[in-house]
Amino acid sequence: MLFKLSGRLPYLRNRHVLLADIAIFLVSPLLALGLRLDGAINFQAYYPQLVWFTLAFLLVKLGVLGLFGGYRRCWRYASVDELQQLTLMMVAAIVLQTLAFDLLSPSLLDGLPRSLPLLDAILGFLLVGALRFRIRALERLSQSRRTFFRRDRVLVVGAGSAGVSLVQEMQRNPSLGLRPVAFVDDDPAKLHLRIRKLPVEGNRSQIAELVRSLHIRKVIIAMPTVAGDVIRETVEICQRAGVQTSTLPGIHEILNGRVSLGRVRDVQIEDLLRRDPVQMDVEQVANLVCGKRVLVTGAGGSIGSELCRQLLQCHPQEIILVGHGENSIFNIQQELEKAVKTLGAQNGPQISPFIADIRFRHRLECGFSRFRPQMVFHAAAHKHVPMMESNAPEAVTNNIIGTQNLVTLAQRYQVEHFVMISTDKAVNPTNIMGASKRVAEMLVLQAAQQSGRHYEVVRFGNVLGSRGSVVPTFKRQIAEGGPITVTHPEICRYFMTIPEAVQLVLQAATMGQGGEIFMLDMGQPVKIVDLAKELIRLSGYELGKTMQIVFTGLRPGEKLYEELFIGGEQYTATRHKKLFVVTNASGIVPTQLDRLVRALNRAALRHDPAEITFLLEQLVPGFKPQYQPPVTMPELAPESVAEPVAKRSPWPAIEKRPMPALAVGYDQTA
User: Fold this and answer.
1) What is the pLDDT, as a whole number, of residue 634?
2) Does residue 663 register a pLDDT over 60?
3) Among residues 61, 218, 292, 425, which one is catalytic?
4) How high is the mean pLDDT of the chain?
5) What is the CATH number of the domain that holds 180?
6) Each residue of 177-203: pLDDT tens digit?
7) Beta strand pairing status for 492-493 and 526-527?
8) d(Cα 284, Cα 279) in Å, to the nearest integer?
């Protein structure tokens, strides 16, 4: 096998390594004997026995090296695996040499110290290992010299396990063009320590000074578990210092993969809004899902696809991907099947795509009959507020009738767990989309009453990175040169990351007894205009000079502020600090629900938005349809990025209350 150390070092083959090993093994018995006798060797007394010993055990050690593949390795890339292999070789050599010595000592090796086989094997393999890892060291030294002046000097923010892992990779691979020179960390206990030969020079407030004094070209933020405000402050410091900044993604994104330079990316808006990591009871979720047949509607969407990814880690028997868009279902199917192969499980989950429109019950029934799901996660819905205002029949047939079809079939096929993904826009809605999702919630709660099974609803707000999120729109507008359009300077929304929302959905599924609405703690509301400002800054533009923000007025059905609570609902805390439950949700389902849903369906089939709005007003308490025409807003003047809009928690003081008794019974006609 041929390998090259560098442009200045000679080509070496494994036969050259073999010759070096022979030389080492011819010398090591003499060195071992000298070590055993403190250098006082009587050559005349030991000469014949030592020769026989050297020749016999030369064959033993070469045989061990050959048997373990010692001459079929490229030692240029030697690592811990090769070190473990050499250790095994040494142990094998000690055992074989000791046995051989006992057999040969009465005749050929009489008089030699009995510890000689042990010392010889240890010395020989220490020298052999030093030779091989010297090759690796010379290669790294050669690479470092060749790239020394072409590598960017890097300051790593965060001297925890993530930062140390990144530094190790940069040090192992000089060809990456990155040379770590120091850490910064806010932990005073780490100040002035050396980690991986690099000093911890100070805390985040000293980044600008260190960038100048150490000639830093790049800063990497390696703090995947800190909150978004810490990332925001760090980015602001780096931008004022004029240095390029990258980051590791949040812990949600790297949960199932190791920290590596391949995951380092530019800072994104999701990093600035990052919250404390969700502490999910993984074992409890796995116990719920393991070995089950799980059906996910909207599996090709943002929430549905992430649900499938996280469900896959819980080892279900089968994941049924239900969706109307064939391309998105194909993409998530390919991703999941690749992940199953990567896991290497012999009996990995079956991935079954099923193209269906949830509005067509007969097609859905074909899927339920074929797959017999034991759990259903219902994430399919029309969610775009202005679009549904002008297409009310679609909101009814998809969000309401589609959900009714699913819960009816879930009861018929005795699905034990049904979890519907809802939205905060269902709370006191002012638009068709929110009202339709509220009716869908009622259908699930009614099914829980009728069946007595674990059917529940999970509400949360906007998710960053989803296809319907405002962030992709802002990014597209920035790429086109602007301006960024915002409907109103005071409009606020609650935001979560997709992985965080899905983790809480799965956690809620383990808690539900049936007939509850779970509400996720969305944190603090964020002004949309602040999101726009942050994206402008992250994109390297300056607000008011190179990029403008234009206000266009509220769109049909749009609120300034989303609400979290419905009058009459009783919210209590759960054992998870980020989950709250509406304990009396099933008790406020209207008795005329089925009749009005049938009327809504007829109105949708007639394409009558006026009647749909009227019926939703009758069915959904608090539904106040409104339309505000666009108003002229002044352009935003250049200013610094505003602070988060709200400083107080939106969650009321919550006391523990006993869970209400749930009505039990199975309606055969549902």
Assistant:
1) 45
2) no
3) 425
4) 78
5) 3.40.50.720
6) 788 889 999 888 888 888 888 899 888
7) antiparallel
8) 12
Q: Is the pLDDT of residue 334 over 90?
A: yes
The two structure tokens encoding residue 483? 């301006």
396 in the same domain as 326: yes
How far is 529 from 641, CA to CA, in rounded Å? 9
- Confirm whether 501 is domain-assigned: yes
Percent of the chain predicted with pLDDT > 90: 23
Closest to 567 measured CA to CA, from 494, 624, 495: 624
**218 plus 93 within the same structural domain:** no
Do the Cβ atoms of 580 and 518 come closer than 8 Å? yes
Give the structural domain span for 347.
282-468+495-522+568-619
d(CA 562, CA 565): 10
Helix ranges restricted to H, 74-114:
80-104
Q: Do the beta carbons of residue 273 and residue 354 sit within 8 Å?
A: no
Asked if 222 and 111 sit in the same domain, the reply is: no
Flag whether 668 is in a domain. Answer: no
Distance of CA 276 to the CA centre of its chain: 14
| Total structural domains within the chain | 3
**Does residue 561 belong to any structural domain of this protein?**
no
Strand (E) or helix (H) holding 517: strand 517-520
Q: What's the rounded mean pLDDT across residues 57-61?
A: 75
Residue 637, CA distances (Å) to 201, 550, 640 in order: 39, 10, 10
What integer pLDDT is reported at residue 141 of this predicted model?
A: 59
Question: Active-site residue 545, yes or no?
Answer: no
Domain boundary among 240, 272, 304: 272
Q: Which is it for the CA torsion 239, 244, 250, 253, positive or negative?
A: positive
pLDDT tens-digit readout, 279-293: 667 788 888 999 999
Q: Is residue 642 part of a domain?
A: no
pLDDT reading at 601 higher than 90: yes
Find, among 363, 456, 369, the residue nearest to 407 by Cα.
456
Alpha-helical segments (H) within 206-298: 207-213, 228-241, 251-254, 269-272, 282-289
**Residue 471 near residue 531, CB atoms below 8 Å:** yes
Spatial neighbors of 432 by CB under 8 A, at least 6 apart, are: 388, 389, 392, 395, 557, 609, 612, 613, 616, 625
The helix-helix angle for 43-67 and 14-36 (nearest 10°) equals 140
User: 334 and 267, same structural domain?
Assistant: no
Give the pLDDT mean for 480-493: 85
Same domain, 218 and 359: no
Same domain as 63, residue 105: yes
Answer yes or no: are the C-beta atoms of 260 and 286 closer than 8 Å.
no
Helix pair 80-104, 116-147: axis angle to 10 deg: 160
**212/129 same-domain check:** no
- Encoding tokens for residue 377? 């996660």
Among residues 502, 493, 464, the alpha carbon closest in space to that of 278 is found at 502
Domain boundary among 146, 181, 202: 146
pLDDT tens, residue by residue, 26-49: 777 777 777 777 666 666 666 677
Angle between helices 402-412 and 432-451 (to 10 degrees): 10
- Phi/psi zone of residue 580: left (φ > 0), alpha (ψ -120 to 50 degrees), beta? beta
Assess whether 193 and 255 both reside in one domain.
yes
**Structure letter (DSSP) for residue 399:** I
437 phi and psi angles, rounded to 5 deg: -70, -30
Q: Which of 123, 132, 25 is nearest to 72 (CA)?
A: 132
